[in-house]
Amino acid sequence: MPIRYIKAAPTTYVIQFQDGKVRREGPGLSFLYWAPTTTLVAVPLASADVPFVFNEVTKDFQAVTLQGQLTYRVADPKRLASLLDYSITPGGKYLSNDPEKLEERLVQVAQVRARTVVQGMDLREVLVRSEVVEAQVLAALGATEAIRMLGVEVMGFSLLSVRPTPEMSRALEAEAREGLQRRADEAIYSRRNAAVEQERRIKESELSTELAVEEKRRQIREAQMAADIAVEEQRAALMARWTENERHAADARAYALEKVLAPVRGVDWKTLMAANGGGNDPKLNIALAFREMAENAGKIGELNMSPELLSGLLGPTQKEPASEPQQRTRGNR
């Protein structure tokens, strides 16, 4: 049948050429057309992902493999259709392989830009800063004139992996492992040093506390000694004052006794006895008589005392019986 029907998806831009002229164009069109004189062009507008694998060399001459994907979409389908053949058969297949060449061109341009970025970085920097590589390559692709001329917009450049050679990978792993082990050892040493330092501070604090306690104890002992000395000094002063007072009191009593005895110092004791009223006591008089006899013992030849006399002296005083012993004493004398 020379009359055909086409129904395109909304993400497909269709251009109908007839007799060398554009009859209709737009996304998602559906129409009947005369097949013998009509050429259909279908440009996909949906975004597409193109995988890639780049083998590049870094600034320090180390091989590195970049693996990822490039995301793009057609921004100007008419421009792209004018540069590449996107004509299709009535069955919907492309008549040429130009649509595949678009992806190859994009990958080639991306590889050139990625090579420029990677060659300006060291291997370690490329491995740990893949986001920098992505950002720089994406910016470079957006500013590439060849891509703008194709009417294509690069939406993203993503790196899924960045790998060095196996030998370099093992070397980096060993270096990283040694670095981690060294940092672990440093952490252990630091922890030990911190523990020793903390222990030293604790010991110093304990010694300071002990010194402070001993200082307080010394101050307390000194204060107690000072208090004891003060008490002893007060006691000594009190004792000295008491002794002085006692001495003054004794001096006063001696002075008073001396003044009392001064008038009678030269008076006979017998006179004093008589003045004191002691002569009225017979026993006292007998005692005085015996004392006189004792004083004049050399003058007495013999002295006889009867039991009656002793019992009379020791017994109650009787005036009448006393005369006989006196007379007898005189006779014997």
From TrEMBL:
Signal peptide: none annotated. It holds the Pfam family Band_7. GO terms for cellular component: membrane. It is found in: Membrane. Residues 308-333 are annotated as: Disordered. Residues 10-191 form the Band domain. It comes from the Bacteria. Its main location: membrane. It is a single-pass membrane protein. Residues 324-333 have a biased composition (Polar residues). InterPro entries: Band_7 (IPR001107), Band_7/SPFH_dom_sf (IPR036013). This is NrtR-regulated hypothetical OrfX. The lineage of its organism: Bacteria, Pseudomonadati, Myxococcota, Myxococcia, Myxococcales.
